[in-house]
Every structure is written in C-alpha cells, then in structure tokens.
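My current task is to audit a protein record that another person submitted. What it holds is a sequence and that sequence's fold in token form. Thanks in advance; the entry in question is below.
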Amino acid sequence: MSLIPGLLTVIDVQNDFCPGGALAVPCGDCVIPVINDLSALFAHTALTQDWHPQGHLSFVSSHPGKNLFEAVSLSYGPQLLWPDHCVQGTPGAEFHEGLKVQHCELILRKGFRREIDSYSAFFENDRKTPTGLAGYLRERKIDTVYFTGLATDFCVLYSALDARRLGFTSIVIEDACRGMDFQGSLAAAWKQMAEGGVTRVRSAELLAKAGG
C-alpha cells in the first residue's frame, strides 16, 4: 500500500466534544474508527486540541447575565458563548481514548489565550494571529491538507477555508467529520466550503486510492 501524500489533520477529537462531554457534537465519537483507519494511509498526521484556560472569554460563565450560545461582541468581533469546555489539564480536554492515529508528527493546541477563541487550525478568531501550521506545512513542503474531526460547521469549516485561502489544496473527508448543526449551520458550512474551493470526499475513495 502506498501512503497518500499530504497532511491528515484531525480536528479536536476530545472528550468534551464527544457524547457525554460538556459540548458534545451529536455522534461525535462515530468519526474515531474512520479516522483511525485513515491515519494508516497517510505519511503525515497532525492533531489539533482545544486548550482553554479557566475563565476563557468564549465561556458563557465569563459573561454574567448572558445565555448559552448567545453571540456577544468581543475585541475581535462576534463570538458565540459556549459552555466551559476543554479546560487545560481536565479530562474533557484530553483526546478520546479510542483515538489511535498513526504517523502523528504534530499536536497543535489552540484557544489557549484567555482573550480570544480559535476555531481554525491556522488562525485565531481575529483572523490574523497565526498558529504556525501554515509555516510548518511550507517548511515540510506539504501542499495538500485533508481534514477530519469536530465539528464540521465550526473548527473543520474554518480550518478548511483558511487552508484554501493560504494556497493549500484543502480536502474535507465527509464521513470522518460530524457537525453541531445549529439551525442549518451544517448545510451552510458545506455550501461555504464548496464555494471556497474546498474538495469534499469520502473515506472509501481514499481507501480505494491507497489500495490501488
């Protein structure tokens, strides 16, 4: 079997985003066996990890009188308010125990600055503070990024669009992702990605390609 070139990026497959977690994505753990199988096909794999300090400004608990999932205006623009989740050093921030990826060479932590959230694997939510992933890819001469994980309509969406905007080939593996789907946000995310030049595939296509 020949390994697929490009970076397989696994977005935020952490306990708090899986069933029973503080901000569970419906059927979020269903992506784990698909991702595990896919990771064997790639020469390069990276994981992102939400890594918030206590009292992060994206938490509704930091805004008395505000409601869960309400949008507020912060210094960098609108921000949805989330339940406390993926707090540094807590079990909820840990990767799901079922996640067993191969060829992992990078773990990228995001959202660790109290004053700003970070959906994308490339930028914080001000859309200009870089995480360093783009530089890493360029240094390694990797020009194609495949995305899996949670959630399709937030962190996967922002990451895939940023990859394309930065000049990388951006591919989302549909059945290796799950979305929150707030009032049609999942369909809107797929539409945005299609319009932004992001390719959409299924894992079976990649399995067949690697096998061939």
User: Anything to note?
Assistant: Residues 37 and 101 are 8 Å apart (CA to CA). Residues 152-165 form the longest helix (14 residues).
